[in-house]
Design goal:
The structure holds two protein chains of two kinds. Chain A is of the alpha+beta class. In chain A, about 30% of the residues lie in helices and about 20% in strands. The chains are: A alpha+beta, B alpha/beta.
Chain lengths: ~170, ~425
């Protein structure tokens, strides 16, 4: 059985243009338009972050929707749960902004909305077929696939590279 | 006599998370959860919202929310275990009721410590905020309360103070230490927190001790300091820490040293008995030192570990920091974790004030390991820091990112 689709990132294709960050913030705005989103209050927030990686490459980092999510178990209000589609979600009504989830997330991808005092994270764009960041990426550095398909594709790429080198 | 496969004594963080872990690994075994409280399991950290009136009993319930969605469990309320025979595997409850079990988890938590040096703590209107019952009775007394005095400057009393301020009560906090939150940070680190607290209208009297609480038939009338000064109030709160609930095991043969002593798999000295949460003695992963903590998140983590072991999945508990708090005080977020008291040590310490924030980073004396942080204001790197501390990672290559607070997960990728 295949798992749910996940968002993967390929640092070798990422140019750090941050188009994904903007697309994410716009998708999570009320008006869903860049121009009006800029003026919205509370300010719409991006939920993925293009960061430098150790090797000199850049990589968009976002919630991994962990199998056994530490944030979910650590939450002191029961605001964080996992949907059947494998998406870890934060219930905005229950969240009290204590930031325990921020403290325990080893990826550092849970954002703090200071205006509303609520924690937020990638929700894999529940209203869209393909998440906004993935659609927006001009170099296809972001990939939306089932883990199984993703690893098969990677195997093909690696095998081809090995073959062409010889 | 009742019979059950898994008996869980205590229905808070450790008990309920253990029950869930058991159920996820054993679909058939019967689970019986006992609590001495009259309520269904609830998120204890939310009880200040009962005082403010922002949430009710139902809104703070555990079952049906978060990881406890779609999870059914039978909870027996108002059941206090009097004593236990761990070799016969029988727990005796008050009123001649007893339960026999295959495996037992002690998750009885802790209760407030009431210092006997303080006179008059039995008076009506003296509280130590711990249970939903406490919060409800506090909420009921608000109508006859104008002023409250908080004795002790820890997180519980601060949370209670802000709940009372919200209800229009004048609150004075008396703390013996030179600064509030002395368990979580050194006085010089607490400057921003102190400032935020005072702006919010809470009066702090530091370096002072309470001698007695005066009362009449209506309850508390005031609190007398060592100096002889009396502060009038109709409510007094004692926040002087907690003590593990271990008395019911006193003649059982279960090993106790402050809390219940467990091995690395949360098992007691007698087979098929486990302990987790505030009542258990655990260890600190860096120093290996034995500690008793009283934190929700630690209790859940330990409870889950106990649950896995009870269901037959051998799982080691990785230990926990004695200090690991994230919260927001007077609109100021802060995180304190690991080793944060550095006075008189040779640790490498970096401190920085920036706009609306403060950060203290503690590295080992050779500087290669991060061992503690206090973050006030911008706490974004807290999760990554916890990961670095917990895994004792060599941080030499990324140290400047930690110090500049520009650390991201990308820096940890090969």
């Amino acid at each position: 059985m295949k798992g749910p689709k996940e968002i993967f990132a390929n640092p070798r294709l990422c140019t750090a243009c941050k188009t994904c960050e903007i697309a994410c913030a716009v998708e999570h705005s009320k008006t869903k338009s860049l121009y009006s989103a800029l003026a919205e209050r509370p300010q719409p927030k991006r939920r993925l972050y293009v960061e430098p990686a150790k090797t000199g490459l850049n990589i968009p980092i976002l919630c991994r929707h962990c199998e056994d999510a530490p944030c979910m178990h650590a939450c002191i209000t029961g605001a964080i749960s996992k949907t059947q589609a494998g998406v870890v979600i934060t219930d905005q009504d229950r969240c009290i902004g204590c930031w325990t989830c921020v403290m325990v997330c080893p990826f550092g991808v849970i954002g703090r909305h200071l205006e509303t005092q609520k924690a937020y994270r990638c929700d894999r764009c529940p209203d869209r077929e393909v998440p906004a960041c993935v659609s927006a990426c001009p170099t296809k550095a972001l990939i939306y696939k089932e883990a199984e398909d993703f690893s098969r594709d990677r195997r093909v790429v690696v095998a081809t590279e090995m073959f062409t080198k010889e | 006599m009742e019979k059950t496969d898994y008996l869980i004594i205590g229905a808070s963080a450790a008990g309920i998370s253990a029950a869930l872990a058991i159920r996820n690994n054993d679909l058939k075994g019967s689970i019986t959860v006992l609590t001495d409280e009259p309520f269904q399991p609830y998120f204890r950290p939310l009880i200040p919202y009962i005082i403010t009136g922002q949430k009710d009993e139902q809104a703070i319930g555990m079952l049906g929310s978060g990881p406890y969605k779609d999870f059914e469990l039978e909870i027996l309320t108002n059941k206090r275990v009097k004593n236990l025979e761990p070799l016969q595997k029988i727990a005796y409850i008050e009123e001649g009721h007893s339960v026999s079990y295959h495996k037992v988890l002690f998750a009885t938590g802790s209760r407030p410590f009431i210092p006997h040096e303080i006179q008059g703590t039995e008076a009506k209107g003296v509280y130590a905020l711990r249970t939903l019952g406490d919060a409800k009775s506090i909420a009921n007394r608000l109508i006859e309360t104008k002023e409250a005095v908080m004795i002790g400057g820890g997180l519980v009393n601060l949370k209670a103070s802000f709940a009372l301020l919200e209800r229009g009560i004048r609150v004075t906090l008396v703390v013996y230490s030179p600064e509030v939150l002395s368990q979580l940070m050194e006085p010089e680190d607490a400057y921003l927190i102190r400032k935020a607290i005072e702006t919010s209208g809470l009066t702090i009297l530091s370096g002072q001790n309470v001698r007695s609480i005066v009362s009449d038939k209506r309850g508390v009338r005031g609190v007398v300091l060592d100096s002889g000064k009396e502060i009038p109030c109709q409510m007094a709160f004692i926040g002087k820490g907690v003590r593990p609930n271990v008395e019911f095991l006193s003649d059982s043969g279960i090993k106790i040293d402050k809390g219940i002593v467990v091995d690395e798999c949360t098992q007691c000295n007698i087979p098929d008995a486990y302990a987790a949460g505030d009542v258990a003695v655990t260890f600190e992963p860096i120093s290996g030192q034995r500690i008793v903590t009283a934190l929700w998140t630690n209790a859940v983590e330990m409870g889950r570990c106990a649950g896995f072991n009870m269901a037959g999945l051998r799982t080691k508990y990785t230990g926990t920091f004695g200090i690991m708090n994230a919260t927001q005080i007077a609109n100021t977020p802060f995180v304190s974790m690991g080793t944060v008291h550095t006075k008189g040590t040779d640790y490498e310490v970096h401190k920085e004030y920036y706009k609306d924030g403060y950060c203290k980073l503690v590295f080992s004396n050779h500087g290669r390991h991060l061992i503690g942080v206090v973050l006030i204001g911008d706490i974004s790197i807290a999760g990554l820091c916890r990961y670095l501390i917990r895994n004792k990672m060599d941080v030499s290559a990324i140290k400047r990112h930690i110090i500049n607070r520009t650390l991201s997960y990308g820096h940890l990728m090969q």
